[in-house]
Amino acid sequence: MYRVAKANEYLIITGIGIEDVKLAKKAWILPGQRSTTFSIAPVNYSFDVHAMSSEKLPFILPAVFTIGPRDDEANLKIYGKLLSEVAQDSQELHDLLKGVIEGETRVLAAGMTMEQIFQGTKEFKQQVYDKVQTELEHFGLRIYNSNIKQLVDVKGKEYFSFMGQKIQQEVANQAKVDVAEAKLKGDTGAKERAGLTLRNAARVDAETKIFELEQEGLRKQRQAKIEAQTTMYANERQVELAEANAVLATKRAAYAQQTKIAEVEATKTADIREAELTKTLEIRRAEAEMERLRASTLAKAQVDYEITVQQANAKLYEQQKQAEASRYAREAEAEAKLFEQQKEAEGIRAMSEAKADYIGRMLSAFGGNHVALQQFLMLERGTYTELASINATAVKGLQPKISVWSGAHGGGSGSGGQGGLAPEANAIKDIYTLLPPLHATIEEQTGIKMPMNNVYTAVQPRH
What we know:
Belongs to the band 7/mec-2 family. Flotillin subfamily. This protein is α+β, with helices and mostly antiparallel strands. It is built from 10 helices and 9 strands.
């Protein structure tokens, strides 16, 4: 529902969607929310506060307090929470406030004597007001007005009555004393007045004469002072006038100079403006002439541009054709060279394959003995002959040792089926039987030891 509070009221709302409490003058109350209306108008509370002085003398303090909430959001929320527990016009709220006021009053009275309370009633009441106000701030309340009445005795403890009677008696006695003193003063005063009249008359005459003389002297002093001040004032005015004239002359000179400067500036400004306008006019004329020349030249430039573009296109086409012909020639040459290299590679590969096949067959013939194959290839290629020639050249002029030897077993090579071998095998055998003496000779003559033991062993006849 939609609720609206009166001018002196507030709505305090709680429930779903509200973290603590919400204050409003008007609001929609949604499902799951609750609202309470409370008034902020001050309320009068009357109390008879029972207290006791430091001498344990009880008394009653009648008081009327006008109390209401502070009109700001924070204090109104505090006051609204208080009213959620007790009604605004309930006895519970009345007792709560009474308890605060009585408690502060009792604490304050317990630290004072009855005489202090009675003699300083105004100060006591102010202290009560201050203490109560401090405590009420915890509830969001303030005292708008307080009326603390005269202190009242507790029945059977008539302290204030006795104090009143005492004061009344003292006042009556004091009045009697005052009357007697007044009569004494009246009789004595009459006599004193007569004598005083004579003395005062003589004193007044003397004082009058002295006063007249003093007044005359003062008048002359004032007159001299006035004349001196007048002279000083006139001199000061003349000085000020001279200073004003000097300032005026200076300002006139400055104004005249500024006027001349302004006139010169105005003249020069006009000249500058005229020169600027002339310059602008010449620029506009030059721009117009440039546009005319540009328009007349543009057509010729356009024709020349088109001719140049056509010539450039023709030259570019010719260069493209030449580049394509050159590229075709290079490609043909590269293809021919590649074909030649391929054929050379094929020939080398065929030769290598033939050599590899030859070496493989020979290695198979020597039973896989690489050293024997190596020695055979050296014999086949004349390596030993070259070594012998080199050795002969090296020992020329020396007396070398000469070894004479013939075929294997001292008899040269045979041509029959010696040892049951085929003729081709016997021929190879004869060659290898010559190798040991040859290597021995090389080692003896040059100091070079040839690795022929394995070869020799390989060609020994098998039994």
